[in-house]
Amino acid sequence: MIDESKLIVPDPNNVRIIISDCDGTLLNSKHELSERTNKAINYALANYDVNFIIATGKTRYSVTHIRKQLNIDKRKNCLAVHSNGCIIYDDKDEVIKEYFVNKEIVLKNIELYKKHLAGKDYSYVLYVRDTLYLPERGRWSEFLEEYGERVAIYDEPELIRMIKNDELAINKICVLTTPEIFYDGFNEILQKFIDSYEEISFITGNIYCYETQPKEISKGASLKYIMDTLNVKPDQVMAFGDSFNDISMFEVAGYKYAMGNSEKAVMDVATNVTESNDEDGIAVVLEKTFMKDNKN
């Protein structure tokens, strides 16, 4: 248990944006939104001039049910950041910003995987708006479906044809594998490949997912864009996260809270460390900020 008296929280009347990662943060380890967290978020939305934003490496499709549970689906100024910042949606479900990886880089990325991971347990994934494209069904397609993603399976020759013919506008490409396989030298090979291009960068938000995406694009960059759009200052933003891809948000937000289950690097740059995602860490902070004596 954390010492809640040591939590540093903002003046609730000054907060304009609450932004949160999804898995490992907003949702518990069963990928569920707890009643307590839902109640705390909705209390803030109902009683203060604040907007709630989900920022995730996943697609919008995968969190549609969560948005409905939170009553933020098409709610004014409750924008959304998906695919690690590659896509920003407005409050009417329309795309207002979108970024892509050049198809030639995607094709070379796939060749890199095939050359160095042949015979190993892996799959690559092409993120195209709300659909993830994979070359075969198996462990990794099931893994993505457990996270609520919509998966489309095409034979690799057909996928390659679609990429070459510009039938797929790819936001990012991800290799799914185990840490043991990835860090057995392939991490260095992939980083060298990425470093050879000015327009791409590496990010990971999950121990099984290693991504190549447009450079300068991140959750933090998207948060900054939203802040500028809504004329919001850093000290008016509360951010919650648990993984490496959340650090960029913490660099922008004035108040940043790492979950108790966070990577150490995330905790190191946080205002405070709250309880874990299985112990309603977000609710703990929001209750102290917005509810005070109104927890019942």
From TrEMBL:
Q: Which GO terms describe its cellular component?
A: cytosol
Q: Which GO terms describe its molecular function?
A: magnesium ion binding; phosphatase activity
Organism name: Neocallimastix californiae
List the PANTHER family hit by this protein, alphabetically. Answer: HAD SUPERFAMILY HYDROLASE-LIKE, TYPE 3 (PTHR10000:SF8), PHOSPHOSERINE PHOSPHATASE (PTHR10000)
Q: What is this protein called?
A: HAD-like protein
Q: Which InterPro entries match?
A: Cof, HAD-like_sf, HAD-SF_hydro_IIB, HAD_sf
